[in-house]
Amino acid sequence: MPASAATGDAVVRIEGLSKTYGTTPALHAVNLTVRRGEAVAIIGPSGSGKSTLLRCINRLEEPTEGRVFVDGVDLTSRSVDINKARREIGFVFQSFNLYPHLTAQGNVRLALRLVLRLGRAEATARARAALDSVGLSDKYASYPSQLSGGQQQRVGIARALALDPKIMLFDEPTSALDPELVGEVLAVIATMRARGMTMVIVSHEMQFAREVADRVVFMNEGVIVEENTPDELFNRPVRQRTRDFLARVVRH
Description:
alpha/beta, four-stranded antiparallel beta sheet, globular
């Protein structure tokens, strides 16, 4: 664990967060804190509220109740400038969401031009640095159709990183990839973690969660059932629901 994760202040603080779709509850009274420099993995069965929780953090979904603070800013406040606040939050989706008519460099540069209003030269330099950091220094001029799924996802990560966020959120970043391409994306995330990036990762890759996360959160039916270090949660889970889930998904 990075030293800052052990003693750092909270980058994300979630208090009593609930989300209901009509009469269907997706989240119920969730409380969670993510410290600076910490990597938190969220696991659980499909429909347990993992992605909804992630999307509530930057208000892609509007919470029904509760509060979300990012770097001390209350994102659920009526007065918050949500577009400004979102600049501090990198988000990597399941799908790549790249513009097909733009090169890898163009996709990353566009975010810098639109969000940070950088000049073309500065945006180009930052886009290339971000692509370098995810191992795509030879793909500046490649279009999405010329890239593998893993490379496209790495462009998506570079696009988020280029904005220099305070935290990175990953929503099942490998779920759309062929199995042989999963490793290259997970390796990039592991490198970011080693460099001290604060991140929350929703993933079904149990071994990755075990190896990379400082803390693992298990969700079921919209609530946090259990959270602990990877060693404790995977090897000595306290709750029966956690034990049942792990017995089905973890390979021994």
